[in-house]
Design a protein that fits this description.
alpha/beta; FAD/NAD(P)-binding domain; Flavocytochrome C3, Chain A, domain 1; 2 domains; 6-stranded antiparallel sheet; about 30% helix
Length: about 475
């Protein structure tokens, strides 16, 4: 009979690494399957924000905070949506995760925790991130993981993709079938933990679950393998309806179809000099509204969830740069050749270049300029330093984007994968993006993507998973 592992983990990323580390330290024989050629998963792409309360860093700064306040803030920001018991377990354990990461060498930026303006803000500073983003988390976890590999407690198989979960006669998870190159084999285990991310990079599943194009910047191996394998066993799929886009991504002429945040659209970081015009040539919001949540919801209501940021030569000369971290030659290249970067000597030329109605665009800009002149905007915009009136005119197309999977397989509070009837699939667990970012509700809440993945991965390895010791170990 082939070897039976105590724990089979699919995915060596945000949730899989801490799960493997803690299970191995408790004496489990663990095998980790990873589709990529290195560990870390989407941590290589993420900003690395984690939130947590009653931490050493909060105490050092004299910040009075606790899990109840954290949970209340989450529910306020997501408008009472999401899985409240799940969110509460996270809030109660997130601080310990932050402290553990700090103890193993991870270092957020000075003066953290802080308030971050990328999402709707917390009432209290409880978010942490490092200068090099989530790569710093990989660098902190890797030595512990590698140490367990060297001890023989963890076996790592890279460039190996799971094709299905194997079950026994009782319908319990008993291992996984994997493919490496052209070779397929079965790996047997007493526990199967799916931490292989979501479907953020799968155009097929994005279209199936959300009926819209795949737009964003994502870990390429997030193809939904775990979601498909669990659903094939009857796992319930939930939370996709909580989709909300990130405001707002643009194309990069050097990265193909990927769209990411290349412009500064956050008023707290840069007040907007431009106006936002939807595909009908109309404005749809006060561009300087400070609520991230409001901006995201306004964008959701626009045709194709897209808009053009429009400005003129005077604004280009006087405003802080709209495009950040791009050298001039790259900007010139974008406006010269990319369809999402357009310019015209007149508004008629700009309309022709963007595909907008010239009449609608002219009317929109005329209305804005009239309001700007008397400092009274139809949408309530306050910051209006210049009219849009001096050619040439410029337009940068922005899109609703996503970097995460909102839907995922449902689990109980012990991370056991559940069927639609509420029964757990024996020996099958899931954590991280496998359970859906939308589980935290219909909003982006700071530090609740990476944070829960690490936290529930840690809890699985440290407390939840059990395995049978063999007779030789028992004799010792």
């Amino acid at each position: 009979m082939s070897k039976v592992w105590d724990v089979v983990i699919v995915g060596a990323g945000t949730a899989g690494l801490p799960c493997a580390i803690f299970a191995a330290k408790r004496g489990a024989k663990v095998i980790v399957i990873e589709a990529a050629d290195k560990i870390g998963g989407s941590l290589w792409y993420a900003s690395g924000q984690i939130s947590g309360t009653k931490t050493k860093l909060q105490a050092k700064r004299g910040i009075d905070d606790n899990p109840d306040k954290h949970f209340a803030d989450i529910v306020r920001i997501n408008h009472g949506t999401g899985d409240h018991p799940f969110m509460r377990i996270f809030a109660e354990n997130a601080g310990a995760t932050v402290d553990w990461l700090y103890d193993i060498g991870w270092r957020p930026q000075d003066e953290h925790p802080a308030i971050t303006y990328g999402h709707e803000i917390y009432t209290t500073p409880r978010t942490y991130w490092a200068k090099d983003g989530a790569i710093s988390i990989v660098n902190a976890l890797a030595p512990l993981f590698d140490a367990e590999v060297k001890k023989g407690n963890i076996t790592l198989r890279l460039s190996t993709r799971m094709s299905e979960v194997i079950t026994d006669d009782r319908g319990a998870a008993a291992g996984v079938r994997v493919i490496a190159g052209e070779k397929s084999d079965d790996i047997h285990g007493r526990n199967v933990v799916l931490t292989c991310g979501g479907y953020a990079a799968s155009a097929e599943l994005w279209g199936k679950f959300h009926n819209r194009p795949l737009r964003g910047y994502f870990w390429p191996h997030a193809q939904g393998d775990g979601v498909k394998a669990a659903m094939a066993l009857g796992a319930e799929f939930k939370w996709a309806d909580n989709f909300i886009p990130t405001f707002a991504g643009t194309s990069d002429p050097d990265t193909g179809d990927k769209k990411w945040i290349n412009t500064i659209c956050t008023p707290q970081l840069r007040q907007p000099w431009e106006i936002y015009v939807n595909m009908n040539g109309a404005r749809f919001m006060a561009e300087d509204n400070s609520s991230v949540d409001m901006r995201e919801r306004a964008l959701m209501q626009q045709p194709d969830m897209a808009f053009w940021s429009i400005y003129d030569e005077a604004i280009r000369e006087k405003a802080p740069p709209l495009l950040f971290a791009w050298p001039k030659d790259k900007q010139d290249r974008a406006f010269a050749s990319h369809p999402d970067y357009r310019m015209g000597a007149s508004l008629d030329e700009l309309a022709a270049a963007t595909g907008l109605s010239a009449a609608a665009l002219k009317h929109t800009i005329e209305r804005y300029n009239l309001g700007q002149a008397v400092k009274s905007d139809a949408f309530g915009r306050q910051f209006m330093p210049l009219p849009v009136s001096k050619g040439p005119f410029y337009a940068v197309k922005h899109y609703a984007i996503s970097v995460v999977s909102f839907g995922g397989v449902n689990t109980d509070m012990k991370c056991r994968v559940l069927r639609a009837n509420g029964q757990a699939i024996p020996n099958l667990y899931a954590a991280g993006e496998m359970v859906g970012f939308g589980r935290f509700g219909n909003a982006y809440v700071s530090g609740t993507s990476i944070g829960p993945a690490i936290t529930f991965g840690r809890l699985l390895g440290e407390q939840i998973l059990t395995w049978n010791t063999n007779q030789a170990q028992a004799a010792e």
